[in-house]
Amino acid sequence: MITLYTFGPALGLPDFSPFVMKAELLLKMSGLPYQTDTRGFKRAPKGKLPYIDDNGTVVADSTMIRMHLEQRHGVNFNGAYDQRSQAAAWAVEKMLEEHLYFALLHERWIKDENFERGPARFFDFLPAPLRPLVRRMVRGKIRKTLQSQGMGRHSEAEIVAMACRDLDALSALMGEHSCLLGEHPCAADATVLAFVAATLCEQVDTPVRTHAEKLPNLVAYRDRWMAHYYGAGQASTSALAA
Predict the structure, then answer these.
(1) What is the pLDDT of residues 9-37, one digit of tens each?
(2) Where's the GST N-terminal domain (predicted)?
(3) What is the rounded distance in angstroms from the CA atom of residue 208 to the CA atom of residue 100?
């Protein structure tokens, strides 16, 4: 059986990391049996989650996990769509993962009110005297990451404007379809659902979330597919085949 290493449910989401959620959705879509384990971070081969252990074969990074499922298990996530459509889906994935993600990272970790409401709680397992030090250290690393990537060099208003434009583009591309490309999920839907759910997370109060709530097709997409994969109204980790 495949073991997926995760952070675990948080703030009403199956996982606070959209990349972990993406990996789990790929496993759900594949129909392969799997289990989750929240104790693997210290052993993460690339220093981050998610990663999987597939009967002794360890694969890190959500995109590498997808490729592994396709190559080792013959999973065809995109069989319903032609090459041009698949190329467009890949471009959407990268827009979300390499651009919107950093705006969400800023909103969650750098804005004090959201940090205290969410990420700050992740350190509650530490001894009380250590918590402030570790929180400052981790937030400092994230600030450096955002500066290096570039998103952190923008003003709050500029970050919000760019994130909202990503969401508008996604909404326009999806249109009235049930899924990103049409009526059947493709691999990119794992990314799209993870990021739409993360953006609409009610525990994170941002203008980006408010904007997303005004895009009815994205809200309906989140509601429909979260209920399908995780059960109505709850973030379950039971595996449901697509």
Answers:
(1) 998 999 999 999 999 999 999 999 999 99
(2) 7-77
(3) 10
pLDDT classification of 233: cutoffs 50, 70, 90:
low
Question: Cα separation of 93 and 86, whole Å?
Answer: 11
The beta-strand segments (E) located in 130-201 are none
* Distance separating alpha carbons of residues 151 and 127, to the nearest angstrom: 33
CA proximity to 62, closest of 92, 91, 30, 97: 97
pTM above 0.90, yes or no: yes
- 121/138 Cα distance (integer angstroms): 13
* Cα separation, 23 vs 43, whole angstroms: 18
Q: How many separate domains does the chain show?
A: 1
ω before 50 within 30° of 0 (cis)?
A: yes
Q: What CATH number does residue 109 fall under? A: 1.20.1050.10
User: Does 205 fall in a domain?
Assistant: yes
Where does residue 232 rank: exposed (0-12), middle (13-18), buried (19+ CB within 10 A)? exposed
Q: Is residue 235 part of a domain?
A: no
241 found inside a domain = no
CB 60 within 8 A of CB 23: no
Host H or E run for residue 192: helix 187-199
Gap between the Cα atoms of 208 and 106, Å rounded? 11
Q: Residue 205 sits in which domain range?
A: 2-230
Q: Return the structure tokens found at 182.
A: 């049409």
- Closest C-alpha among 238, 236, 237, 226 to residue 190: 226
